[in-house]
Design a protein that fits this description.
D-Maltodextrin-Binding Protein, domain 2; 2 domains; 10 strands; globular; pyridoxal phosphate; transferase; NMT1/THI5
């Protein structure tokens, strides 16, 4: 019969073996959280290099995730791909989110990607478009009919007492200023990075109206279905941690990101342009006094109220009930 000290030693040894066997299992569980599909608003372009760098940097792999990126042609596309079940997370603009909520969709915003409004309307000097009211009767390009460029153009029009019926909207494609240069449109709704690339490619002297002067609100958010939020919290928490790590890397190492963009982005042929685009996007990802991803709920509520007041959505949106910040890293 074993003495008490012997039994205690044997039990302690068994406990140690059990703990040792469980540790690898826990590590394996962390390493196999699974695949996460992100529905984007764009093709793989340089401004999302922090996502495209996954094969090189492995931010999502480090969190046990296999990242897949599903391209789109606007924030509305990202929402549709989310609602169809093709994606777990949508990379979309607030206007597209408000529109989906207005239709009764159960969605939640879980991360503020770009807390600065980056949209604008660009015209050649000869068009003499100096203020939003001057857009009346003009042909205006947008990336797509489901894009944030169209949503923000509508905000600018409504602030000037105009509607979509007062202009002619023309789909020109993402980052494409050729129709403006060729006179096919009088103005183009774009983003800061789109304008930057356009200028580098010979756009010349232009007039620029910033949408933030009409409504300064976040440009893009991560959005999920409410059901997925409830069912896949560990995966979504890991996704947000990986994304914030990737964003922090691109902010700290823009030159390295520009080099990776030259291999990974479809518009990344010029490394100097990549660097300018990446620095611009880094700036829009940061808000004074707030951690990456943190929400400014009053600002988003102001935007939702404006969409409702302008008739862009029919029902008011309670932003506090739509935003869920509980999965943000550090919360």
């Amino acid at each position: 019969m074993l003495s008490s000290p012997q039994r205690r030693a044997l039990l302690a040894g068994a406990a140690g073996l059990a703990a040792a066997s469980l540790a690898p299992a826990a590590a394996r569980a962390q390493a196999t959280l699974g695949k996460v599909t992100l529905a984007g608003w764009s093709k793989p372009i340089s401004e999302i290099t922090n996502l495209l760098a996954e094969p090189d940097k492995g931010f999502f792999k480090a969190q046990g995730l296999d990242l897949a990126y599903l391209p789109g042609a606007g924030g509305g596309d990202a929402i549709r791909n989310l609602l169809s079940g093709q994606a777990d997370v949508a990379f979309t603009d607030p206007g597209s989110l408000f529109t989906a909520l207005d239709k009764g969709e159960k969605l939640r915003a879980i991360y503020d990607i770009y807390p600065q409004n980056v949209f604008n309307v660009v015209s050649r000097k000869s068009a003499n478009i100096k203020r939003p009211a001057d857009l009346k009767g003009k042909r205006i390009g947008v990336y797509s009919l489901s894009s944030g460029t169209r949503q923000n153009l509508l905000v600018m029009l409504h602030q000037a007492g105009l509607t979509e019926r007062d202009v002619q909207i023309v789909v020109t494609g993402v980052l494409n200023f050729a129709p403006l240069l060729q006179g096919q449109v009088d103005a183009t709704a774009a983003t800061d990075t789109g304008l930057l690339v356009g200028r580098r490619r010979g756009l010349g002297d232009v007039d620029v109206m910033q949408v933030r002067d009409s409504l300064n609100v976040s440009s893009d958010l991560f959005v999920v279905r409410e059901q997925v939020l409830q069912q896949r919290q560990p995966l979504l928490r890991a996704f947000l941690k990986a994304y914030r790590d990737s964003a922090a890397w691109m902010i700290a190492r823009p030159e390295e990101a520009a080099a990776i963009a030259s291999r990974r982005a479809i518009d990344g042929t010029d490394r100097e342009v990549n660097l300018e685009v990446i620095r611009a996007r880094n700036a829009s990802a940061q808000a004074a006094g707030r951690a990456l991803g943190a929400f400014d709920i009053p600002s988003l509520q102001k935007a939702a109220d404006a969409y409702h007041a302008l008739g862009l959505i029919q029902r008011p949106v309670d932003v506090a009930g739509v935003v869920d910040a509980s999965l943000l890293p550090g919360t």
